């Protein structure tokens, strides 16, 4: 099937459409229903009657946007009417939810009269926290938005006007910087004079462009003062009438610094591009076919051409989804009465700044592993970059507060953390650890220091103040890679071949391993050749506080050097690998998933203690379950006795100050009703959040099934039981995984100091 048929099947498959309503509170018992509806619902109703602002406290209003259209200007389809526009409006709701966790009702109004549209929408103000106008033709859209903004006390935003303005504005800020031109001096030409073009031109002026340097063209050519005086253009177009004799688009583009296309495909030739000023910026945003193709624009010139389109298959996509979800997120969360120019400008500036930052691996992978580094081919962030939410929304919220349209105040730092939590429980949990790490950063040795991911992770650790990274490896290679990545970063590098401590470290390794068959000569070779040994001795001697490795090694070979050199903690005989799995409303720690193949009762007990201690680093009070296929003696054999005996050891240990029980089946451990009803004698005071598997095979299988089928996000493996902080990553981990483990390692090191 082609794209059209695939889309039809996508929309008609059960249930039809793309959105549904789901409940956010329990509705399982008669009492639940009496709270949700009659008679309990009367209490919040009366409270809202007394104080209307309590609607934000008691209802979904504060997270609800109405997407309103009459279908008069839908995508590239034109006036197809309200009913036919519904799939588009549902799609808009999907984007709001996917990118900013905002709920949406789509409202299709079968009406062309602006007065009736304004009346209908204004009457719905009690329902919504904001209104997104969509696909309403010009010039009516201008009047409708202006009047609704005046009449309503919630934000009203016409995305077709302002979305493109904000996203392309962010690109323009960066493009002007790259080609070393001042915004106020840019000669800017617009092809198209509809709602989007007019709003974009006005927004560029608010960013610093000079209105007298903007030339706007419609289908009849340059909009001149003569045409405006003759009534040939409407009042909105007339705002950008030029003091010239006239001409067509080709005339306007001659000598221009910037071309902004919001018209139709294929109307710009290579000759027109060649007539522009040096190092031109071309935003050809007609969809699906731009005014000139990316290839033709690039081939037309030998100097720098910064090219953006509305398409995802070319660099610098101007995609409105980078704007409206996050504008509304910030506006809703401070209960703004408007989305004003300050808030739009803040969004554009935040997007521009984000494009200058290192790009997460997940984003790079989502776009086919193409290089994404600030420069002519990357002046606008990608829509799938999760950081847009907690970079743009706080900037918008802050601008709302500073400009006086916010009805409530937020602490922007705390607010950014709350937004990260919306992207997943794992971000919320890691924020706890990373904040602790920032309070007292420690020196973290990165064994595979020449690896590109390690260098990028080191940059992020230093940039975020999480750790003081030390890259181990060939200095020249590390410095060359850092420069190639374009990172403004002067990392600390320790080169085992050139560092004066190599001999001292070799002596120490020999001292530790001489009765294990390691000669002084072999120790020298190991220290100089294997940064895992060098880094392990570095940590053992106190020259670094923690070690990360494993990115390019098999797990056993990466774990062996730190075990040999650093060893287990004073109160530990064994180490274990733990994964933290985060679900929407739950966190569990799974052990052991990477180290001990067939643990006995003593090993299981010790691993449980280590894992409980780790859980507390994440501010989780541990409740541990020893897992089996048996429930409290229902099966009695050697396999089920081991976890049962481990529980006895833990119950007899005076140092154990957390609840632990077993042996028990996995569902018994995590389902509260089973624990309370069938096994009410259990010492667990709630569902288990530390799951200790009976052997490595079960642990590894179990956490991976939970991750893949249960939709959990996994952080780890985190190594517990070492004498000093060491974490061994999985091969192929992403930069964010390295940074997360560095944060855990720093908190480990902080605990060592206490």
Automatic annotation (TrEMBL):
Its cofactor is Mg(2+); Mn(2+). It comes from the Archaea. GO terms for molecular function: acyltransferase activity; malic enzyme activity; metal ion binding; NAD binding; oxidoreductase activity, acting on the CH-OH group of donors, NAD or NADP as acceptor. Residues 1-24 are annotated as: Disordered. The keyword Electron transport does not apply. Residues 8-17 have a biased composition (Basic and acidic residues). Residues 16-149 form the Malic enzyme N-terminal domain. It holds the Pfam family PTA_PTB. Residues 161-401 form the Malic enzyme NAD-binding domain. GO terms for biological process: malate metabolic process. In the N-terminal section; belongs to the malic enzymes family. This is NADP-dependent malic enzyme. It comes from Halobaculum magnesiiphilum.
């Amino acid at each position: 099937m082609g794209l059209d048929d695939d889309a039809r099947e996508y929309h008609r498959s059960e249930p039809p459409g793309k959105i549904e309503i789901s409940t956010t509170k329990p509705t399982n018992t008669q009492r639940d229903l009496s709270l949700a509806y009659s008679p309990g619902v009367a209490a919040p109703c009366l409270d809202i009657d007394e104080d209307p602002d309590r609607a934000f406290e008691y209802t979904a209003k504060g997270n609800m946007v109405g997407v309103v259209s009459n279908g008069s200007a839908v995508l590239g389809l034109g006036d197809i009417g309200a009913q036919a526009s519904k799939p588009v409006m549902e799609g808009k709701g999907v984007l709001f939810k996917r990118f900013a966790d905002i709920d949406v009702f789509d409202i299709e109004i079968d009406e062309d009269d602006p007065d009736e549209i304004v009346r209908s929408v204004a009457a719905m103000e009690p329902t919504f926290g904001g209104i997104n106008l969509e696909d309403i033709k010009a010039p009516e859209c201008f009047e409708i938005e202006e009047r609704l903004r005046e009449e309503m006390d919630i934000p009203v935003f016409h995305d077709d006007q302002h979305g493109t303005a904000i996203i392309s504005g962010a690109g323009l800020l960066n493009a002007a910087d790259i080609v070393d031109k001042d915004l106020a001096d840019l000669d800017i030409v617009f092809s198209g004079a509809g709602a989007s073009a007019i709003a974009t031109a006005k927004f560029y002026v608010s960013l610093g462009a000079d209105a007298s340097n903007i030339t706007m063209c419609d289908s009849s050519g340059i909009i001149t003062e003569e045409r405006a005086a003759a009534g040939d253009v409407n009042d909105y177009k007339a705002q950008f009438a030029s003091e010239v004799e006239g001409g067509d688009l080709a005339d306007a583009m001659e000598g221009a610094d910037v071309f902004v296309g919001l018209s139709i495909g294929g109307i710009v030739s290579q000759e027109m591009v060649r007539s522009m000023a040096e190092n031109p910026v071309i935003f050809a945003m007609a969809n699906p076919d731009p005014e000139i193709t990316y290839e033709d624009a690039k081939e037309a010139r030998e100097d720098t051409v910064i090219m953006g389109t509305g398409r995802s298959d070319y660099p610098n996509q101007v995609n409105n989804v980078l704007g409206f979800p996050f504008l509304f997120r910030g506006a809703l969360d401070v209960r703004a009465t408007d989305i004003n120019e300050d808030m739009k400008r803040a969004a554009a500036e935040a997007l521009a700044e984000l494009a200058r930052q290192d790009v997460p691996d997940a984003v790079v992978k989502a776009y086919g592993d193409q290089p994404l580094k600030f420069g002519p081919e990357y002046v606008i962030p990608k829509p799938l970059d999760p950081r847009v939410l907690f970079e743009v929304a706080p900037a918008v919220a802050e601008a709302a507060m500073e400009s006086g349209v916010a009805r409530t105040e937020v602490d922007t730092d705390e607010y950014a953390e709350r937004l990260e939590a919306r992207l997943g429980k794992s971000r919320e949990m890691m924020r706890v650890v990373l904040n602790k790490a920032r309070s007292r950063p420690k020196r973290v040795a990165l064994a595979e220091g020449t690896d590109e991911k390690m260098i990028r992770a080191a940059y992020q650790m230093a940039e975020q103040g999480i750790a003081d990274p030390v890259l181990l490896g060939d200095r020249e290679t590390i410095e060359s890679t850092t420069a190639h990545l374009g990172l403004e970063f002067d990392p600390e590098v320790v080169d085992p071949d050139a560092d004066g401590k190599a001999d001292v470290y070799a002596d120490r390794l020999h001292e530790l391993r001489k009765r294990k068959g390691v000669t002084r000569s072999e120790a020298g070779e190991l220290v100089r050749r294997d940064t895992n040994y060098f880094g392990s001795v570095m940590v053992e001697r106190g020259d670094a506080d923690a070690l990360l490795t494993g990115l390019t090694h098999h797990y056993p070979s990466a774990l062996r050097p730190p075990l040999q050199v650093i060893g287990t903690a004073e109160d530990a005989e064994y180490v274990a690998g733990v994964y933290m799995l985060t679900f929407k409303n739950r966190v569990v720690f799974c052990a052991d998933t990477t180290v001990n193949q067939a643990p006995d009762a003593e090993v299981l007990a010790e691993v449980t203690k280590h894992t409980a201690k780790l859980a507390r680093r994440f501010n989780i009070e541990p409740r541990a379950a020893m897992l089996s296929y048996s429930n409290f003696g229902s099966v009695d054999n050697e396999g089920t006795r081991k976890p049962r005996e481990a529980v006895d050891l833990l119950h007899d240990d005076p140092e154990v100050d957390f609840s632990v029980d077993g042996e028990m089946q996995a569902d018994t451990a995590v389902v509260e009703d089973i624990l309370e009803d069938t096994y009410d004698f259990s010492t667990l005071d709630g569902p288990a959040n530390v799951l200790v598997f009976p052997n490595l095979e079960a642990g590894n299988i179990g956490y991976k099934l939970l991750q893949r089928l249960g939709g959990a996000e996994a952080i780890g493996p985190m190594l517990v039981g070492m004498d000093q902080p060491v974490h061994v990553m999985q091969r192929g981990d992403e930069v964010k995984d390295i940074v997360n483990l560095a944060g855990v390692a720093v908190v480990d090191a902080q605990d060592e100091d206490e």
